[in-house]
Amino acid sequence: MSNKIILALDQGTTSSRTIAYNSEGKPTATAQQDFEQLFPKNGWVEHDPEAIWQSQLNTINKVFSKGISANDVAGVGITNQRETTIVWHKDTGEPVYNAIVWQDRRTASYCDELKSTGQEELIQEKTGLIIDAYFSATKLRWILHNISDAMDLAKNGKLCFGTVDTWLIYKLTKGKVFVTDVSNASRTMLFNIHTLKWDTELLDLFDIPKAILPEVKSSSEVYGHTELFDYKIPICGIAGDQQAALFGQLCTKKGMVKNTYGTGCFLLMNTGNKPVKSQNNLLTTIAWQINGKTQYALEGSVFVGGAAVQWLRDGINLIDDASEIETLASSVPDSDNVVVVPAFTGLGAPYWDPYARGSIMGISRGTTKGHIARATLEGIALQVYDIVKAMENDSNMHITELRVDGGATTNNLLLQIQSDIFDCDVVRPTNLETTALGAAYLAGLAVGVFKSKGALSEYWEKDKTFKPQANKEGQLKLIKLWHKAVKRSKDWLTDN
Predict the structure, then answer these.
(1) Looking at residue 176, which CATH number applies to its domain?
(2) Which end of the chain is more exposed for a tag (fewer CB within 10 A), N or C?
(3) 392-410: pLDDT as tens digits
(4) Range of 199's domain?
């Protein structure tokens, strides 16, 4: 076996995976391991950093047990759950506290304080983000203020803060390398996306000593070498999971868009070499940096995507298995004016309404299970539509193609509905594991396994293109009904 193998470490929220890719970008071996989710209090979500590391290391060793040796590997790429915050002792590598996960809401009231003192404009201007407990800055501040001696140790340069990529690299290099990349740094709410540096004004605002922060590097370069295997392997690619998926989908040109349909949906649009400030409640983020060139993206999230189908299955037993929804929804020609707004946990972008709740509207005596199933798929697609329209408005670009990945994209009807609503092509690739693939591409470019960004297009294969088939008038009526239903779902839990 040639040493043209790239290992992609895909460290996710509920599991860690390692995938070996050959020089054609094809997976040759894979391993996955779940780890425990910790919920110490209502709204708190944590992971044991050692469990993250152990599960990732186990999957690397499992891939090595499938006929690949460390000597075959040209490089390692890392992609990770973003925003999750880990602090550890610089000398011993021992965490001072559990990892505070991106979903954790413990700092929500502190975020409200920041908003009430008028910090929103400053933070959006510098970081491209809105003030929210989602991002790393308030989580890191919480650890420094709530764990005894943490602040003193941090000021004296004795602690390290990192997102999950930084933690894995620290462990893989036995503490020799302490870095992150621009895509992960841009999710901390501490990084200036214009100067590409940690921002002193923001560090002062959050009371965070600079000494605790990792060095910020590009997304594709050799950062260091592993110290754990028979052979020292270069670690040479890093990107946060959604940025890695954008790269894995080869959305490398301005105006290209990908959507990942998972539990929720994550949409990213490549906006080229300049950040676009959103006027529509989207996030501005760094996509990646390669050879000194930085690309930016607009991002919008839908909180409930595939989770709406899980609710039909587990919540109201409308189906026994998620795969049945396509057949059930196809049993009717349309949703007969029924609209499902899947706002089970509030509405994400562009509404950002935590008080909205899910609703089913337009029910008549003639409504069947099929209508509700179809309206649920439409509800997922219409949430995506709202974000894409916001992206078009922010960027002054019209979208002609949407590249899709994630578990729910096996549902052909969902993708057809999406294409009809957008009136544009929806393209599904053969390889739906685009997050890991993006990390592999970034690593492979750094060590010459892949020759250039342009050359990667020969490895990206189209499985199917869904073209618009529906009557435009009918789609406009559906969109109008959707916005009417959203309006009525908003502010549900307030007294208004």
Answers:
(1) 3.30.420.40
(2) C
(3) 999 998 888 999 998 889 8
(4) 5-232
